[in-house]
Specification:
The protein is α+β, with helices and mostly antiparallel strands. The protein is 24% helix and 28% strand. The protein contains 4 helices and 11 strands, in the order ααβαββαββββββββ. The chain is globular. The chain starts with a helix and ends in a 7-residue tail after the last strand. GO terms for molecular function: ferrous iron binding; L-ascorbic acid binding; peptidyl-proline dioxygenase activity. Residues 98-197 form the Fe2OG dioxygenase domain.
Length: 203
Amino acid sequence: MNQHSDALKTFFHLDKILDEMQTQGFSIIDDLYPVEYMQTLQQECSDHLDQFRKASIQDGVMTEIRSDHILWIEPDLTLASQHIAQLEHLSQDLNRYFFAGIRDIEAHFACYHAGEFYALHRDNPQQKNGRVFSTVYYLHSEWQNDWQGQLRLQDIQNQWHIIEPKANRMVLFQSDLLHEVLETKQDRLSITAWMRNSDPVLG
């Protein structure tokens, strides 16, 4: 860990998160990190764009449901790993409050180029992958509304929400909620992560 590590731990507003997760199944956290850290994390993502690969759904099977490109986060991506460490701290609080049984985090960088999207889906179909909560953290420096690329999400009351991919914003939501990424008109960078309570069921 480097100089950013200690500063990051203070940026989760836990009471707000727990209340919103209880009442609507998702929470939006703006201005998550110091700008300096966000910028260096964005640079780490940009430096590895040539390693991104077209995303698949499961077991390497390509599909027309999504068109984004991803890079799974490993320990050598040191800045992204600090973000994962903060999600681990948050998952401990979610475990205490919701008895979620979260044991690990899986995550990847995601890049949506202009014209790319992710159609309506759930992150834990058939309850086979152990995903309990999903997070999306937006990495780009700025975002204009007419660039689109929003997250469209149905909450636990079956109400639909359109969430702008604002820079330095994180969205936390139950992995069983229906959601989609609308087609973007501008390159859109993020880290998608899932808090899991078990290993995926293979078969």
